[in-house]
Structure formats: structure tokens, C-alpha cells
Design a protein that fits this description.
mainly alpha, 2 helices, 94 residues, single chain
């Protein structure tokens, strides 16, 4: 027979899993609905209309200004992890 606390813990874990699964399902349903609306609007548009000019260079510049600091931060974390790993290997060999 399982102790009562283990049973409660298992029930809580199962409830959390169900809650997470429900939230993922709800999110997927919302995405499906948004896509359906997008698809309908896309099919209803005037396909003969001229597309507006788009500045791809400006988009690339915005992308780099947004992503570069994150790449640098990620690299710093990777360097720190690598250093800690090397120290752990060194200490493990003693």
C-alpha cells in the first residue's frame, strides 16, 4: 500500500500534466483558428493588386540589431559552461 503523501503527489503531478496538455491544446486550437482566418483573408484578396515595395535591407538590419546581443549573451553562457566543465574534469581527475 502506498503512503498517502505519495498518492497525493502522484495526483498533483497528473493534474499538472493534464493542465499543461490542456493549455497546449487550447493554444493549438487558437493557432488553428487564426490560420483559418488568415487563409480566408488571403483567398479573398485581390490577386491582381500590386504588392508594396519592401525594404529587405532594413529588415535584415533590424534582425541583426535584435539577434546579435542575444547571440553574444548565449556565447558568454557557453564559454562559462565550458570553463566550468573543464574545471570539473580537472577536479575529477585528482
Amino acid at each position: 500500500m502506498k503512503p498517502e503523501s505519495t498518492s497525493n503527489s502522484t495526483n498533483t503531478s497528473i493534474e499538472r500534466i493534464r493542465t499543461f496538455q490542456d493549455s497546449v491544446k487550447d493554444f493549438q486550437d487558437r493557432l488553428d483558428e487564426q490560420y483559418k482566418i488568415f487563409e480566408e483573408e488571403l483567398n479573398e484578396r485581390n490577386q491582381d493588386a500590386e504588392l508594396e515595395d519592401f525594404d529587405w535591407d532594413e529588415l535584415e538590419a533590424r534582425y541583426h540589431s535584435a539577434i546579435d546581443p542575444k547571440v553574444e549573451a548565449e556565447q558568454e553562457i557557453m564559454n562559462e559552461c565550458s570553463s566550468l566543465f573543464r574545471v570539473g574534469q580537472f577536479l575529477g581527475g585528482c
